[in-house]
Amino acid sequence: MPDPVGYPIRAVAKLTGLSIDALRAWERRYQAVVPHRTNRGRLYDAAQVRRLTLLHDATKAGHAIGSIAKLESGQIEQLLASPVQTAPLDASSDSTILKPVLRAIENYDYAGATTELGMLASLLPVPELITKAVHPLLDLVGKRWYDRSITVAQEHMVSALMRNLLGGLVRLYHPRDPRVKLIFATPAGELHEFGILCGSMLAVSAGVESIYLGPNLPTPEIVAITNRLKPHALVLGVVAPSYIPGLPGAVDFIASQIPPTTELWIGGNQAPEAIPHSESERIRFLENFESMQPHLDRLREAQ
Predict the structure, then answer these.
(1) Helices assigned H by DSSP within 244-291
(2) Is the pTM of the predicted complex or chain greater than 0.85?
């Protein structure tokens, strides 16, 4: 019996804008579609391609795939025509939803913490995942770090969990034809990467290409990579400026050496006071994650 006519998975990835990893995850975890299995591999019919496109559009609009994967295609179309409605989570519930994650971290249970974060990621749109789960978790870990109630190993585990979560979001939301590119790093001496991890997640969920370089990067490398890749913006995380030797001079040098078309964004609520304003026309200070979204929108609309 001949194979049914359909699209192979690589063609579907191009048609829908979803990565192959995301397609497989949506099928395996949510049964979003059930492709035909043949000796040529997966084959998708036109209706399934259309459904996947609708699901992708809905996730980009802020709906969690876990909450919409079982809907009919017509229902997804109606959802796209309506404002995003999400269940509010008040401040008191933040600690509740984080309890399983914190318990796993306290027990050095990396697999368990990964599973719990994955469940939250499937239930919440990325902006809410950041503000209601990831940021409160990182804030709590940071406070425990300073009062020495968390170990170095546990802090490193959380960093690894966040990098793993970012990688999953990059695979899920990677745009087919990204129009905006951002680089995320912290300057030499800044070891805290939580801020740029969250910022990178937000950028990815907004359809922006995120190049994550990580923490504690020497100034010459930041300049060299930025000049090579010419992103729309270079985002530097500065959490503890008093611990970064020569920070004002390093920022001045970076601002003077990167391409004139690249904006320099400095994240951290202590950054404006710690960095002189000699190069302020090149710098945009981001005091919180909410202040980043308008700049992302501005860059996307300008392309």
Answers:
(1) 247-257, 271-274
(2) no
